[in-house]
Design goal:
Number of helices: 11
Keywords: DNA-binding, Phosphoprotein, Transcription, Transcription regulation
Number of domains: 2
Strand content: 5-15%
Protein name: Two component transcriptional regulator, LuxR family
Order of helices and strands: EHEHEHEHEHEHHHHHH
Pfam family, one: Response_reg
GO molecular function: DNA binding
Radius of gyration: 17 Å
Helix content: 40-55%
Number of strands: 6
CATH superfamily of the largest domain: Response regulator
Organism: Micromonospora echinospora
Shape: globular
Length: 218
């Protein structure tokens, strides 16, 4: 079972998400919080696999909560799925920098929410498909001058760095394999090793790291 925590200041939203997710059969909602501060405490106690996080909440916002939850984790942190009203909300970019694994719009279809939770639980970060490339492009534009993590960058092989660069440019595993004339399974293997070296848990945070560390030409 995928263990999920819901964080939203509106009880009706939490109730709706609980009903949708628990009907999936392989997802269990283990905790609910109405603000970011409570979410941090509950995350330590329940150790969910995925957290559906609202951003704008009184009593502790989701942005600070995401940073604390991801930063304080002594083991693999939970994947944070930001649930937002606006597709290019300013807070989305801050959430990505804070360690969120993806975001989805509040008016998404029930099946989209379920699939997003499953993907994050499986280690695949995502951005709502309607705005994926827009978000990556805008994130790259907003990112300050690269702050190279010299140790991690140096540890990547030439092939790993190349695959990370193509991933950050928005290519899928299949597209990367075609571009480099290699098997898709080989792409996944190289990408998995690269993610372990740079210390991220999913594809989206790999993209964030790539832009922050100058792997992608600006």
């Amino acid at each position: 079972m995928i263990r999920v925590m819901l964080v939203d200041d509106q009880a009706v939203v939490r109730t709706g998400f609980r009903v949708i997710l628990e009907q999936a059969g392989d997802i269990e909602v283990v905790a609910e919080a109405s603000n970011g501060d409570a979410a941090v405490d509950l995350a330590r106690w329940h150790r969910p696999d995925v957290i559906c996080m609202d951003i704008r909440m009184p009593g502790g916002d989701g942005l600070s909560a995401t940073r604390r939850i991801v930063g304080e984790a002594t083991e693999t942190p939970p994947a944070v799925l930001v649930v937002t009203t606006f597709d290019l909300d300013e807070y989305v970019f801050g959430a990505l920098e804070s360690g969120a694994s993806g975001f989805i719009l509040k008016d998404c279809e029930p099946e989209e929410l379920i699939e997003a939770v499953r993907r994050l639980a499986g280690g695949y970060g995502l951005v709502d498909q309607a705005v994926t490339r827009r978000v990556i492009t805008e994130f790259a534009r907003r990112t300050a001058a690269p702050r190279t993590d010299a140790v991690a960058a140096h540890q990547l092989t030439a092939r790993e760095a190349e695959i990370v660069r193509l991933l950050a440019q928005g290519l899928s595993n299949v597209e990367i394999a075609t571009e480099l004339f290699i098997e898709t399974s080989t792409v996944k293997s190289h990408l998995g090793r690269a993610m372990a070296k740079i210390g991220v848990r999913d594809r989206l945070q790999t993209v964030v790291w790539a832009y922050q560390n100058g792997v992608v030409p600006r």
